[in-house]
Write a structure and sequence with these properties.
It is built from 2 helices and 9 strands, in the order αββαβββββββ.
């Protein structure tokens, strides 16, 4: 059951991000990092409950996974730090928690957002072979 839920969580995160999977990924050495951010309100209640995510139009979720290249779709653990800065320069660290379910490994972090807030994300990743990479992207959130 949890495998189906986590697959649903990933699918929903990728769908609601508004961009194709290939556009929300970055290669780091022999690994690919997939990432996105979305409102927690868009998650089905069963998924939110299963992973203790608070559904709210004023909460957002950052979802990150690292996969080894080669088509196995097996998630790997990585060292990941994430933060976001709004357009007025206010910085917020995003505390990520690891979710491991069979061959899947995800890192998720919740944070508050306001209507029409634009955040610039800065994600730093160290993959298992020691390679490091940085991901930067911008997302705007609507709460009304």
């Amino acid at each position: 059951m949890k495998v189906k839920i986590i697959s649903l969580l990933t699918l929903l995160c990728l769908t609601f991000a508004g961009q194709a999977l290939a556009e929300n990924s970055k290669a780091i050495g022999q690994y690919v990092v997939h990432y996105n951010a979305l409102s927690t309100e868009s998650l089905p209640p069963s998924v939110a409950r299963a992973y203790s995510i608070k559904r709210s139009k004023n909460k957002a979720l950052l979802n990150i996974s690292v996969l080894k290249k080669g088509g196995s779709f097996e998630g790997v653990e990585a060292d990941i730090q994430a933060r976001a800065t709004n357009l007025t320069g206010q910085l917020r660290e995003i505390r990520l928690r690891k979710i491991t379910e069979q061959k899947a490994v995800y890192y998720i972090g919740e944070f508050n957002v306001t209507d029409r807030e634009t955040l610039d994300f800065d994600i730093r990743v160290t993959v298992p072979d020691g390679s490091k990479g940085q991901i930067q992207f911008r997302e705007q959130f609507f709460t009304n």
